[in-house]
Amino acid sequence: MRRVVLALALLLLAAAIGFYALSTDVARQIGAGEARVGGPFKMVNHRGEQVTEQTFLGKPMLLVFGFTFCPDICPTELQVTSEALQLLGSKGADIQPLFVTVDPERDTTEVLESYVANFSPKLLGLTGSPDQVKAMADSYRVFYEKRPNMENPEAYTMDHTSIIYLMDEKGKFLKHFSYTTDAKALAEGIAAALKL
Question: Angle CA(34)–CA(86)–CA(46) in degrees, nearest 5?
Fold first, then answer.
């Protein structure tokens, strides 16, 4: 009788261990899903053309969110992005760099057109209505907030997430790069992620 009880106890213990291993394995698989970054959007480029995520299918995208009145971070990120694409040369020819404004109040298509010309002929500026900009920023998990200037209301600034996003040719998130990434590291990171 003792042997039967012991055998049953061992069997129950083995079943419990197996169930635990299975449940933790399932949990690991669920936790290893794709990052929820990116998605559908409707915007206007700096040429006044309506664009959506479908416009860029077939091309990897590099996205920088910011605003044209930004004193330092945005121009630095755009300069680094442009230099990285130059370093990639023909290997990065299909990559579409995008500058997405978080300040649609001031960043009209005309303002964006003048601004992006300072960086790269490939760079497209995107703007839209406040709701369109918010929807796109939300889908990329981008925080932004207006910081008023009491002395000069028109000279307000914008706090915002400073990350460069790399999306694949299907619009799926591949990798992000921090503000401190230099052009060489960015080019190498892009090449590795896209297998160029």
Answer: 70
> In the chain, which residues have pLDDT < 70?
1-35
Instruction: Give the three-state DSSP class for 120.
Output: coil
Phi-psi label, residue 62: left if phi above 0, alpha if psi -120 to 50, beta otherwise? beta
Under 8 Å between Cβ of 186 and 81: yes
Distances (CA, A) of 145 to 63, 158, 171: 19, 6, 26
User: Under DSSP, is residue 158 helix (H, G, I), strand (E, B) or coil?
Assistant: strand
Residue range 145-188, pLDDT digits in tens: 888 888 887 888 888 888 999 999 999 999 999 988 999 999 99
| CA–CA distance, 77 with 83 (Å, rounded to integer) | 10
